[in-house]
Design brief:
Rossmann fold; alpha/beta
Length: 319
């Protein structure tokens, strides 16, 4: 039986990944400082270490007996990263330095890295393949690119001593909930933002209505968090086979505009949400839709849920 260390495992995505890892027969240790994660999300059967990934000694101790690391712990709000770039470099890049050092010391052989479609910036074509240029528009996206470079370079450095098998997963827009108690509480993700506005009796906001898209609002590839969790388990299994160096997009391959998301929410709640257009946010490209050919061919993974599934499960998680 293998054991995986899951950084950020008390968070929204991490909690879903932890459950799927346990269901796959793997043992799980969660490392989380609980700044945004919730202790209540740590599943029965998982060990828990309350610590920051920046605490190299704590990470090193947590790696005892561990086959691999799934690294989710990071700051991830695009707008906040524009306002506080040093915070993002300290947490995301500094956290990766700490983690990779601990993994080198412990000779941990496997890693799955949580990256983002933000690494692509404003790509010249759509759908976006993994070979597209990496030209991020925000400090958040820049830290994710640097993290990818660090994993790759560390694997090269370790090749002749303690080899590192790795997979990078570039998430597109994650949404939905696998169960009502695991809903997304982030103030920075679109679907929770829409429901928060409705709870306050306010009109949801559409950030920008003049993008070069079919309806003027940003187009994104939304992926159900349960599908994303399944991709992590598939990536972990691939890493365990050894000698892996791979990058995969994780999305549906289908784009939905912000206005279309508003329409899906209206359908689920049974009334027009009355969305209003406001100014663009810094760092938001017009369209990000994944090419999913590689992950389908090499991991045998594909998304099973659509936008309405995401919105309906997110609504159910709010009670």
């Amino acid at each position: 039986m293998t054991r995986w260390l899951l950084t950020g495992g008390a968070g929204y995505i991490g909690a879903h990944v932890a459950l799927d890892l346990l269901a796959s027969g793997r043992e799980v240790t969660i490392l989380d400082d609980l700044t945004t994660g919730l202790r209540s999300r740590i599943p029965d059967g998982a060990d828990f270490v309350e610590a920051s990934v920046l605490d190299t000694d704590a990470v090193r101790r947590a790696l005892d007996g561990v086959t691999g690391v799934i690294h989710l712990a990071a700051k991830k709000a695009v707008g906040e990263s524009v306002e506080q770039p040093l915070l993002y470099y300290r947490e995301n890049v500094g956290g990766m330095v700490s983690l990779l050092q601990a993994m080198a010391d412990a000779a941990t052989p496997c890693m799955v890295y949580s990256s983002s479609a933000a690494v692509y910036g404003e790509p010249p074509w759509s759908p976006i393949s993994e070979d597209s240029p990496l030209t991020p528009l925000s400090p958040y996206g820049e830290t994710k690119v640097i993290g990818e470079w660090m994993v790759r370079d560390e694997a090269v450095a370790r090749a002749d001593s303690t080899p590192l098998s790795w997979v990078t997963l570039r998430y597109f827009n994650v949404a939905g909930a696998g169960s009502p108690e695991l809903g997304d509480t982030s103030a920075n993700n679109l679907i929770p933002m829409v429901f928060d506005a409705l709870d306050r009796g306010e009109a949801p906001q559409v950030f920008g209505s003049d993008y070069p898209t079919h309806d003027g609002s940003c187009v994104r590839d939304y992926i159900h968090v349960s599908d994303l969790a399944a991709a992590h388990v598939a990536a972990a299994a691939l890493c365990e086979s050894g000698g892996v160096a791979a990058v995969f997009n994780v999305g549906t391959g289908v784009g939905s505009s912000v206005l279309e998301v508003m329409g899906a929410v209206s359908d689920v709640v049974g009334r027009d949400v009355g969305a209003v257009a406001v100014d663009r946010r810094a760092g938001d490209p017009p369209e990000l839709v994944a090419s999913v050919d590689r992950i389908s061919a090499e991991l045998g993974w594909s998304a099973q849920r659509d936008l309405r599934d995401m919105v309906a499960s997110a609504s159910a998680a709010r009670g």
